[in-house]
Fold:
Amino acid sequence: MKISQLEPDRGGARPRDIPEATVARLAAYLRALTLMADLSATAKSGSASSEELAAAAGVNSATLRKDLSYLGTYGIRGVGYDIELLTAEIGRALGAHRPHRVALVGVGNLGAALAGYPGFLSRGLVIGALFDVDPHRVGQTVGGITVEHFDSIAHVCAREDVSIGVIATPEPAAQAAADALVSAGVRSILAFTPGVITVPADVDLRKVDLAIELQILAFHETRKTAEHSESSLSPAADGDTENISPAVAVSS
Amino acid sequence: MKISQLEPDRGGARPRDIPEATVARLAAYLRALTLMADLSATAKSGSASSEELAAAAGVNSATLRKDLSYLGTYGIRGVGYDIELLTAEIGRALGAHRPHRVALVGVGNLGAALAGYPGFLSRGLVIGALFDVDPHRVGQTVGGITVEHFDSIAHVCAREDVSIGVIATPEPAAQAAADALVSAGVRSILAFTPGVITVPADVDLRKVDLAIELQILAFHETRKTAEHSESSLSPAADGDTENISPAVAVSS
DNA sequence: GGCTGTGAAATGGTTCACAGCG
DNA sequence: CGCTGTGAACCATTTCACAGCC
Structure:
């Protein structure tokens, strides 16, 4: 899907240009690798073929190989990829080796879910601050972190060295939250609110709209059930079962 | 994604083939239109140009026109689109005119957030059932609906005529949740768990991985900050110059 | 032999630009 | 004249297929 909000995307020649779609999958590979490492800690060879990795991540093996080729040449022909090496290499590429501090604005159910989300740490993500406007929530502890007041975003973000912001407020507060984060120097924002949010050109904004995800399903569902019309004898002999949907994307 | 299998080309121009990316945006347009209708209920002309609509949805106007052209010809040249007509038409295309019943498995923070999500109804989505394994949660009421036990999915889904399932359980329970939903006859599933879920070929599975979204931001963030320290190579063409105006302007 | 790395082809999606209608 | 609808150009991504290395 794609709810894009124009992004500059400087075309300057940089070391290696990794396609947007590849970045999303690299994160999935990293996760699959971490899982594999745990499982095969006792036995196994310590390496995996592109086929195995692809299955574990839910993608096509050719896609995986091409994705990895953007990082460099880390596979061994005839054998596969060393799990440990590849984990480190992808982690490096994604910047997961160095922690990123995240500020979360809006500590409702969704915010709390995010604050308690496991597996951030292993990917270099650290929730550094929580904010809310509700006096009842300010001062409380969620996921081990004390909720601070919305008005202190600038101050706290500076103190906690936050570089990424997440907006999980109700819709009407989203723009204000974005503004506050931007003022605080945050240049990467993930928003869970529908609706347009305006940010300066140098700020990276991603959006995830839960209702849209469901509506896409509803669309397909409608199509499926509406198929009673013609007795076409092609019952979705679809080959693969795999399915990876990076969901909402921005960045054109 | 599979929606367009090789169709025998039926004579009538009934079901046009709508691209996946367009479907996602149609949902966004629908939302923008509903908002517009509310705002302009008192005054305004009752129609909007592709430019206005595009701005309200955060996309390019050419993209919007092309998207709408898949539905048919509903605009008026020299004028724009009638808001009410277009709303109805997009709603029809998306299947939002007829309600879809949704079952939600896993009523933790995330599940509760979804159950309380406003704006589902206006888009034809109705939460019909909530499930959890936790005895403490079963029997409780969330978002006006009583939480039922995981084991009764098949029974309750049939009773409530559920066609879409949402998985918001902890990771380890995800596959079991999917299996249960599939057994209950659900053929469209949205999962918020990372990791691979296997479903039969005729089941539509979408995934949203919160950690991946953040990791993508972290990647860009790493690039941004690395760019400042890397003042070599590029022949002084690197500054902060964003000549491209993003101009995500929201008008009228 | 098996598997990676990668050009090249195929597919899907976005943007341009303009003809044509209201 | 303004704005839609759309072919055509453009760009991104996926998939194929195979050469080359282990």
